[in-house]
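R.M. (postdoc): so does anyone remember the format we settled on? I'll just put the structure tokens first.
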């Protein structure tokens, strides 16, 4: 980093499918650009770089018999390592804010919690692949089951990917895992109620990230 540049903040949006992460990521980026004059990049996981996008295709539409739990966790960690090295780290060091639709807490909730691999394993892969980096803040968007299923039906219809299409029990376990992670780290997470219109939820997200803006100003 050249002298005098304040590193950009790194914000992750987390939650199950249909919780509105992508919409909120877009609205947050617009607000940070227009109202606060910040440089902002919006990205996603799995993906965000050409290599990680190629791994995304393998994960969401697996060839052959699909992946076992270990291979799946390794592929997510490999995609993340590329994303961190080639996008998240360099952009934040240039002073650009990065908003990622999902990050390592998705692996902790899906593969570690719901998938049964455990948090220690996921953290070890993240330590090896990405030096264990954490977002400056993780926003966990929560919506109740009924709203979630309605949004998913509107978005995906009968089409869902290899992970989105797993059982309701699996997705309940994901939601519980996310909540457990957030409760264990109140500094690192803000839990945001994702019910209501996108504009209503956006106002809550702006409230949640306000301390990062103060930080930037000081
Ligand atoms: P995507 O369509 O991007 O998610 P969403 O439905 O939230 O818009 O698909 C990503 C899928 O990958 C989603 O089902 C969550 C899953 N996933 C994991 O299981 N582990 C991970 O580490 C990440 C980043 C995603």
């Amino acid at each position: 980093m050249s002298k005098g540049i304040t590193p950009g903040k790194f914000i992750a949006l987390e939650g199950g499918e249909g919780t509105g992460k992508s919409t909120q990521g877009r609205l947050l980026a617009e607000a940070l650009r227009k109202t606060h004059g910040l440089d902002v990049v919006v990205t996603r996981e799995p993906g965000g770089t050409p290599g990680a996008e190629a791994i995304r295709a393998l994960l969401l539409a697996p060839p052959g018999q699909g992946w076992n739990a270990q291979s799946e966790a390794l592929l997510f960690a490999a995609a993340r390592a590329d994303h961190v090295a080639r996008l998240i780290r360099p952009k934040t060091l240039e002073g650009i804010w990065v908003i990622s639709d999902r990050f390592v807490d998705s692996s902790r909730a899906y593969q570690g919690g719901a998938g049964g691999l455990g948090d220690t394993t996921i953290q070890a892969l993240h330590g090896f692949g990405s030096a264990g980096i954490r977002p400056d803040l993780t926003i966990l968007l929560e919506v109740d089951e009924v709203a979630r299923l309605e949004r998913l039906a509107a978005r995906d219809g009968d089409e869902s990917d290899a992970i989105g299409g797993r059982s309701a029990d699996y997705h309940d376990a994901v939601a519980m895992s996310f909540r457990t992670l957030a409760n264990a780290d109140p500094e690192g997470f803000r839990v945001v109620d994702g019910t209501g219109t996108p504009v209503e939820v956006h106002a809550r997200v702006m409230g949640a990230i306000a301390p990062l803006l103060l930080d930037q100003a000081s």
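R.M.: ...and that's the designed sequence above, right after the tokens. Also worth knowing: The two ends are 19 Å apart (CA to CA). The CA atoms of residues 159 and 165 lie 8 Å apart.
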